[in-house]
Specification:
single chain; 154 residues; mainly alpha; Four Helix Bundle (Hemerythrin (Met), subunit A); two-stranded antiparallel sheet; 8 helices; globular
């Protein structure tokens, strides 16, 4: 069974980005506040790029018995640079559009489908709800990083 806190976060957690960055201009969003670390824009690009990866993983879990996934790394994903080239506004639109897909995919699954598992190299076998929790916690980590960067700029 899906907990209401998970469904609420899945539906709305990504919406925190806009109020966090609302006072910033594009130069500030693109700024590398900490040398060698991502800008706010790159964090947002990563969140946007990872959502299709997550959708693909859930679909594979539904189609295959215990598929094994590699640990995802943006630096090893050629698509990450492509996403970085989008404007922040375009990325936020992509996040919202893909989030709707994720929300509908996960929340409409029957309990037996939610129990299907896929293996992560670090966390082992996770069912779809655990993958979703992992996805949301990962996103929250980046939201916090964006919040910290915003307050380093202002």
């Amino acid at each position: 069974m899906i907990q209401s806190s998970l469904t609420h976060r899945l539906k709305d957690q990504h919406r925190a980005i806009t109020p966090i960055i609302i006072k910033l201009n594009d130069r500030q969003i693109q700024q590398h506040v900490i040398r060698g670390k991502w800008s706010i824009h790159e964090h947002i690009a990563h969140l946007a790029k990872y959502q299709p990866v997550f959708i693909d993983r859930v679909r594979k879990i539904l189609l295959m018995d215990n598929p094994e996934f590699e640990k995802y790394s943006a630096e090893d994903d050629d698509g990450f640079e492509i996403y970085c080239a989008f404007t922040t506004y375009e990325l936020l639109k992509k996040i919202s559009t893909d989030r709707e897909v994720i929300y509908n995919l996960v929340t409409k699954l029957s309990p037996d489908k939610l129990d299907r598992k896929g293996s992560h190299p670090q966390y082992g076998k996770l069912d779809i709800l655990e993958w979703t929790e992992f996805f949301l916690l990962h996103e929250a980590h980046h939201l916090f990083a964006i919040f910290q960067l915003t307050h380093s700029i202002i």
